[in-house]
Amino acid sequence: MDPADDLIKDPYRVYQRLRSTSPVHPIAGPDGTTAWLVTRYDHVRQALLDPRLSLDKRHSAAGYTGFALPPALDANLLNMDPPDHTRIRRLVSRAFTPSRIQQLREPIGKTADQLLRALGEHGHTDLIASYAAPLSITVICDLLGVPDRHRVDFRGWTDALIAPDPAHPAATRDAIAAMLGFFTTLLADKRHQPADDLLSDLTSVREGGDALSEDELMSLAFLILLAGFENTVHLIGNAALTLLQHPEQMALVREDPTRLPSAIEELARLEGPALLAIRRFAIEDLVLGGVTVPAGQTVLLSLAAANRDPERFKNPDRLDIGRDHTGHLALGLGIHYCLGATLARTEAEIALQTLLARFPDLQLADVEPQWRPSLRSRSLTALPVSY
Could you report the per-residue pLDDT of 234-288, keeping only the tens digit for each? Predict the structure, then answer.
């Protein structure tokens, strides 16, 4: 079967059907070869922790290429297993500690406030273009140390990678070339004139003799920017839309902003931006949910389907910011758990709190939300509102 078209149009209904028939389904993967889609919570959780499922493309029997990134961008954490993954994650994880993210709360709040003040007291706007995207770009660029003169429309690059347009096949190639040139210049500048930022730290980071190779450094910078922008902008956008569609839940958050951290977890469970975890490859024949997956084949773990599994969450399609959301898989699990999870949560919390406080009469515009066509991510192309 190949439910790809339906997965783009209405992923949750398709996932519900697949969960009810079998926990693991053969489908046509992104590269045209067979992939195995896992949809039930227990099996997705089990697979996320299974070392027999590798992120290393060398274990793909079909020669999986994915984005077909050049080596300078491909040596990143999304393609690695231990021990390389362990080494690189250890070297960079100090930049994402809760204490360091706590230091970013004030500048994130100031940026959010400035963006909303620029909109005026009343009017109409697209919250993705005017708020979520520029906020996310500013935060990740400040963290990395990207000077204002080098800040470009990362949204165009990420769109070309995550949701390529079949009518413009060269767009992905052009985006990859642009990002490679961007980081080559930026890292050269950091070596020549280091500053108090993450990229400057990464150019010289060492621990017990370990250091990042040139390709690892470039690839890590690419991944942090791509994931830091892409995931956060859509977490904010999806969360804002969902609250606006559930005014009774939004009222609870307005009345008691201390509920926002819990609300973020529930919003991530219900409408998180990652539909699928990064693809994995079986390094040996293995049984998953009673289904045998042959060695070398691709396994796709549906985080979105797992997070709406009624066997794990009661009334899973309902937004309930007071529910026990512990154990949701929106940010992954195990050694590949989202490196920037604390930053994403903090940024989304501040973005929503500032937005709701600034515009007490915020409403959706009278148009249907438009979702970006992608099997990988759940993300809005625009979020028109009035205020």
Answer: 999 999 999 999 999 999 999 999 999 999 999 999 999 999 999 999 999 999 9
Q: Report residue 235 as tokens.
A: 């977490």
Q: What angle do helix axes 133-144 and 105-117 make, rounded to 10 degrees?
A: 140
Among 40-44, 61-65, 205-209, 288-292, whose mean pLDDT is lowest? Answer: 205-209
In this structure, the number of other CB atoms found within 10 A of the CB of residue 384 comes to 17
The residues that bridge with 299 in the sheet, in sequence order, are 36, 280
- What's the CA angle centered on 82, arms 81 and 84, to 5 degrees? 90
Both tokens of 315, joined, read 């009334």
> Is 56:80 a contact under the CB 8 Å cutoff?
yes
> How many CA atoms within 13 Å lie on the side-chain side of 28?
8
Instruction: Indicate the pairing of strand 384-386 with strand 210-211.
Output: unpaired
Average pLDDT over residues 202-231: 81
| H helix intervals, 71-152 | 71-74, 84-93, 98-103, 105-117, 127, 133-144
CA atoms of 209 and 190, how far apart (whole Å): 21
pLDDT given at position 2: 46
Exposed (0-12), middle (13-18) or buried (19+): which is 39, by Cβ within 10 Å? buried
Other CB atoms within 10 A of residue 370 CB: 11
Q: Tokens 């939300």 label which residue? A: 369
- At 157, which helix (H) or strand (E)? helix 154-162
The pLDDT tens digits of the residues spanning 298-327 come to 999 999 999 999 999 999 999 999 999 999
* Residue count of the chain: 387
Report the C-alpha gap between 57 and 67 in whole angstroms. Answer: 12
Please name the residues in contact with 268: beta carbons below 8 A apart, sequence gap of 6 or more.
235, 239, 328, 330, 331
